Amino acid sequence: MPPHLCATGIDKAFPGVRALQNVQLEIQSGEVLAVVGENGAGKSTLMKILAGVYQPDAGTVEMDQRPIVVRSVKEAEHLGIVLIHQELNLAGDLDIAGNIFLGREPTWGGLLKLIDQRRLHDNAAKIANRLGLTIPSRTLVHQLSLGQQQLVEIARAISLQSRLLILDEPTSSLTETETARLFSVLKELKTQGISILYISHRLKEVEIIADRVVVLRDGKNAGELRRGEINHRALVQLMVGRELKQFFQRQHQAKTPLARTGIEVKDLRWLPAQPGITFTIEPGEIVGMAGLMGAGRTELAQTLFGVRRKLTGAVTIDGKPIAVRKPADAIAAGIFLIPEDRRIEGLILTDSVKHNISIASLPALSRFGFLQRSREERLAEAMCERFMVRTPGIGQMVGNLSGGNQQKVVLAKWLSRTPKLLILDEPTRGIDVGAKSEIYALMDDLAHQGAGILMISSDLEEILGISDRVLVMHAGTLAGSLHRAELTEEAIMHLATGGESRT
Amino acid sequence: MKKLTGIFAFLCLLYVLILAFTDQEAWGSNNFNLTKRIGIYGISCLGAGLLIVTGGVDLSIGSVICFCAAIFSWLVVDHHVPIPAAIVVVLLSGALIGAVNGFLVTYLGLQAFVVTLCGLFAFRGAARWILNDEIPRIAAPIADWSAFFNGSFLSISIFLWLLLGLFVAGSIFLHFTIHGRYFFAIGSNERAARYSGINVDFYKILAYVLCSFFAAIAALMDVFSISSVQASSTGNFMELYAIAGAVLGGCSLRGGEGITVGMLIGTAILCLLRNLIQMAEIKDSLEPVVIGVALLVCAIIDESLRRGLSWRDLLSAPQQLWERWTRG
Amino acid sequence: MKKLTGIFAFLCLLYVLILAFTDQEAWGSNNFNLTKRIGIYGISCLGAGLLIVTGGVDLSIGSVICFCAAIFSWLVVDHHVPIPAAIVVVLLSGALIGAVNGFLVTYLGLQAFVVTLCGLFAFRGAARWILNDEIPRIAAPIADWSAFFNGSFLSISIFLWLLLGLFVAGSIFLHFTIHGRYFFAIGSNERAARYSGINVDFYKILAYVLCSFFAAIAALMDVFSISSVQASSTGNFMELYAIAGAVLGGCSLRGGEGITVGMLIGTAILCLLRNLIQMAEIKDSLEPVVIGVALLVCAIIDESLRRGLSWRDLLSAPQQLWERWTRG
Amino acid sequence: QRASGKPKVAFVSNNAHGFWTFAQRGAEAAAKEFDVELEFRKPSEDSAKVQREIIEDLMNRRCKGVAVSPNDPENNLNFFKNNVASKIALVMADNDLPDTSARRCYIGTHNYRAGRAAGELVKQAIPDGGKIAIFVGKMDASNAQERRQGVLDVLAGIDSKEMPAKITPADAVNLSLGKYILIGTRTDGSKEPECLAKAEDLLNKHPDVACMIGLWEYNPPAILRAVRGSANPKKPAIVAFDENPQTLDGIRKGEIIGTIVQNPYEFGYQSIKVLAHFANGKDDILKTWPGIEDGGRIFVPHRVITKDNVDTFEAEVNKILGK
Ligand SMILES: Nc1ncnc2c1ncn2[C@@H]1O[C@H](COP(=O)(O)OP(=O)(O)OP(=O)(O)O)[C@@H](O)[C@H]1O
Ligand SMILES: Nc1ncnc2c1ncn2[C@@H]1O[C@H](COP(=O)(O)OP(=O)(O)OP(=O)(O)O)[C@@H](O)[C@H]1O
Ligand SMILES: [Mg+2]
Ligand SMILES: [Mg+2]
């Protein structure tokens, strides 16, 4: 069977970076083709070229054996090519339905083009329900949690009558439940003959959904795996070019007993009708935090960090109560937060890698308030090396890095200092396997140095792999706490879905 | 809608105060004056509001009003062009100016503030040049038109009827058609709109065209209402009043927010405020102070209600602020 | 730096044109006048620029200048306060105004445009009220000070020396200290700055304080330079010139961009442009047109160079645009 | 540059108002007649600062003499004295400097006397007294202060040929002047729509106002419009300044009692005539100037235009404008 879409010899260069070199890709109708590769391998760039966001420097694209030139998103849509970007692109002031159907609103009244509100909302609710997004379709998008926003993006893509659907890391903020729902929808689309290009760093998902995998490395084709050959080891082998040994390393498993009590949170509330949240994190402990989408994990982190106003509650570190009214207070007290949404909260996209890494450590890099640029540069260089940030230089604008590399910069910004409590909100969103294991090692290291670590994650595998203890949230409350011994996927899901605590 | 309650309550308060300060037999005549002024000021405010929704801003409104008025009087007085034809030319010029602004902002990627700041200077100068710094004798040739517009229907000024017409059209456009929806989308996240296949450049240009087109209408209304054009003063400060009205009425200059009724209320507040100052015989020099402070109070109330505070919260706000302050 | 080449070249061009239009024996005296004007205008431009870097904007600069000048003359003329004391009071008032603006923008979360629009009205009115709509007889009491400031050192106006002093301080602050770095961070992404532990509210308030403080200095310089205060006209349009200068010099109103040398060049361009218009005897009414168009040209060149186009690209731009247009 | 060989003289107005077009015509006529090159400058803002920049630039262009209508003459005395008059010939037009030695001569209306003439018109319109209101653009302009003071002094029965040192505060309200009561003085920042609104509001607030006086050119038409639109059958009298066509029309229809007009054409003509003579070295021309008063003041007499002479006056105006 001739391929549905076939790209040959694609080249694309950015100033200082050759993102793609002579890349080939073909996909059949009704096929799910996964594209994997390390951060900065060129996956997103390739997808953007297919969807008309970028123009290739060289190479041709054929669809149904006819050469096509896609000059704009609109043209791509005409051809039936739809891309969900790695980063969210939603209009926050419009509601869910408005975003799902943006640009394709059902209308009445002929040339007047009045919006048919009822049809709009009915259709939106239908699609949203299929994906498990049950929030009223009139909710404004900026009120949603990141995961919910990602579902809106997916709903939007699915609602398009596409022939080729490209999903660039659609599940990076989704929990397993939503991912499973998404997969069932994808399977349905597949039976309708729609081709799907799927990018993810969660290799387990790739194993489940992909018919075939194309691996990119350093902007070149690095190999291909067919159904049956797809497994974790083979994928990693092709991506990284070597085998990764221990993935979840907990070398300092045994806690060193310290004379400190760590952080205690008592009766914390940020919503009026909310039972208080109480927990402790001991020094040297890595505590995972699980929960369903919108369970309030991010809000809890924001409240601890002083971004969100708390209504009641007391936080003490090593027995000393601390008053946190703004992030600066939290940082002074030793609480750091690596935020969930890197583009809005984590990075200054228009600024350089160097400045982004140093921004939270400037007082230490200055004398009498004067910046010492050489020290700043040394720090940035060191952190980039440690986290394997792929960038042409530390002067590169962060917005030009690939998604995963941006995330590494956010981590680098905070991990150059030693906190008392480090809160990581989805720290490995969009990060490739190699870097992930590096990050886990770092967390382990920090814990060993006596920091308490709270890691919020939607990736259960990761939670199970690294935590000493897991807190589970459900609908804005703490549903329970599980020790390493009682940690299983079922136990977590039981609590996360509102089941009674068994302990 | 809810967020308009604050300024609507303020508007009502103003109106009650005006009534209190005015003799009863003058109520009718004062009402008529108010409808007239709201009519005239509201038009440019509506245009500015539509543009602000898309995240744009136009500082040149006042100068464009002056320029359009100058063209009109040049055509009518110096070249004896029939008035309807002159009106058409003026409206087209307005639209053209908007198109140029929009082109500069979209295709050349210039900042709206800068482009329209240039317009603020340039069009005022152009108006002076067209009129050659003279006072045109416009009153006589437009006497009939002026009489018509200064008249009333159902004891409401024709100007307000015109505004209401534009308001209905604008409301339908902004809140019920897909075009209006695209305005909001662009103002809220331009890239998202672009990725949704919306012709962002077209709609942004359209917004500038509408804004300047409304300014051209406002210019005509200004001429008809006072039968006079003066290059050095016509339209002065109108951009500030227009933007202030729109913002008072709930538009955010960050874009993506706004509602046409709000713009109307915002304009009305400005007009009533100035009327009240006269009726309460507040010292002339304090007039700007009162306007400034009232704007500020409105903005504070509006923002607080928007953040979900209740009226009761608001009333206890000073105390809370104080506590927050003293705590550290 | 590179992006300043465009406007710097433009500045040089203007200067050459001025020389060409001026008799050689008048060059020296004209140069002195230019240094004087740049000195006076530059101060408020620097303040506006610092604020714009943080993503703020201040429309009240002109009115604050007027208000500060009014306080100064009220103290000196009506109350015979010694001039140094009056200067201190004026500078403190400026800083206080900035603090209030900053407080409203940060703690109450109001839009900067709105808050300072209120200021634009309110402070002008307050100035009129203080001066009671009269012209104070300020010339005599400040004669010595005025003579000093209107003098020169190394044939450069004292005003320019003062500006250069402020410029050096401002440059060090903005480009070499961590505080300046925080200004940029806040202007580029306020949320990210907050999450990085920067005391955003403090720095934003600081930016407003600096802006109004510089406006207060500008007010004093204005008074010393022309020995006159008129509540209805002092400082008129100064906010526009200040913002225009800063933006010309490479500040982006979106925040996070700007360089102090640029602000200086921007101010200089505005001053030279007006000088050139006089020297080339361009019709008065066309003056605003020339200023507007020149601003626009600068903005276009600047934006193009910023996007990495070369001069050659620029010259072939019209043709390209045409092609892009005709393609659809 | 552009050497015409003729000496160059200049006229700098205080703003860009249409009023100055008349002066420009007069200046142009004089420039032609006395063979000088003329530059006529109308600043876009009515501020002392912009005006000063213009004059500085003029002096750097070999200007032999300049006529200025100064903004804030009081405080700019030193500038004019030390920076201008010491270098080139300086004539004040329309508005004088407080120190008569600082300039060669003054040419313009006696605004205080013009104000008194307007006061007489008020007396004539409402001999039995009543409430009056004054409208003007700004109160911190000297011609506004002088005219207003003239009106008030006549009504209060004060006899004087010159402006008194102590003036009535701008914010005086309900000031009693003999039989007359000044309700207040309304300023509009030179914006006609605002003047209209304020006049309308005043009519609603004070239905018994007996006379409304507009001191600047655009004020009377706005007042007239407000009075025409008012529902009150009792129309107040209107006293005007300057020659706006709508004002003249109102006089013809009997809605305006009369207007006090200046003769800006003569400001321009005589200023340039004097400067032309200076430029040609005839420095003693002022000694023989007809009608020159103490301190080198040449008053271009104002005129009172009422229904009787409005038509002839309008014909004159049209002639100057070439209409
Ligand atoms: N607009 C741009 N300007 C400059 N360089 C860019 C730009 N976009 C991408 N790059 C570079 O191109 C390379 C490929 O990036 P791309 O986003 O395609 O990676 P990716 O495979 O999607 O990585 P990730 O898994 O982290 O999302 C990276 O090195 C990146 O820095
Ligand atoms: N049914 C709902 N309707 C509207 N909003 C909801 C609903 N459920 C959750 N939310 C939103 O989700 C927010 C909680 O989001 P938060 O970001 O804390 O979740 P999270 O646990 O981090 O989940 P995610 O994985 O999606 O980031 C609530 O404040 C609320 O705004
Ligand atoms: Mg990517
Ligand atoms: Mg979350």
Element layout with pairings:
The complex is a heterotetramer, with one copy of chain A (503 residues), two copies of chain B (328 residues) and one copy of chain D (323 residues).
Chain A: E1 5-14, E2 17-27, E3 32-37, H1 43-50, E4 58-63, E5 66-68, H2 73-79, E6 81-84, H3 96-100, E7 107-108, E8 114-115, H4 117-130, H5 146-159, E9 164-168, H6 176-191, E10 195-199, H7 203-209, E11 212-217, E12 220-226, H8 232-240, E13 263-269, E14 277-281, E15 286-291, H9 297-305, E16 312-317, E17 320-322, H10 327-333, E18 335-338, H11 342-346, H12 353-358, E19 366-367, E20 370-371, H13 373-387, H14 403-415, E21 421-425, H15 433-448, E22 452-456, H16 460-466, E23 469-474, E24 477-483, H17 489-496
Parallel strand pairs in A: 3-10, 3-11, 6-9, 9-10, 15-22, 15-23, 18-21, 21-22
Antiparallel strand pairs in A: 1-2, 1-4, 4-5, 7-8, 11-12, 13-14, 13-16, 16-17, 19-20, 23-24
Helix pairs in contact in A: 13-14
Chain B: H1 5-21, H2 27-53, H3 61-78, H4 83-106, H5 112-131, H6 143-150, E1 152-153, E2 156-157, H7 158-176, H8 178-188, H9 190-195, H10 200-226, H11 238-248, H12 260-279, H13 287-306, H14 311-315, H15 317-327
Antiparallel strand pairs in B: 1-2
Helix pairs in contact in B: 1-12, 2-7, 2-8, 2-10, 2-11, 2-12, 3-4, 3-5, 3-10, 3-11, 4-5, 4-10, 6-10, 7-8, 8-10, 11-12, 12-13
Chain D: E1 8-12, H1 19-33, E2 37-41, H2 48-59, E3 63-68, H3 77-85, E4 89-93, E5 105-108, H4 111-125, E6 130-136, H5 142-156, E7 175-177, E8 180-187, H6 192-205, E9 209-214, H7 219-229, E10 237-241, H8 245-252, E11 258-261, H9 264-279, E12 292-293, E13 297-299, E14 303-306, H10 310-321
Bound molecules: adenosine-5'-triphosphate (2 copies) and magnesium ion (MG) (2 copies).
Residues 145-146, 297-298, 340, 425 of chain A line the site of one magnesium ion (MG).
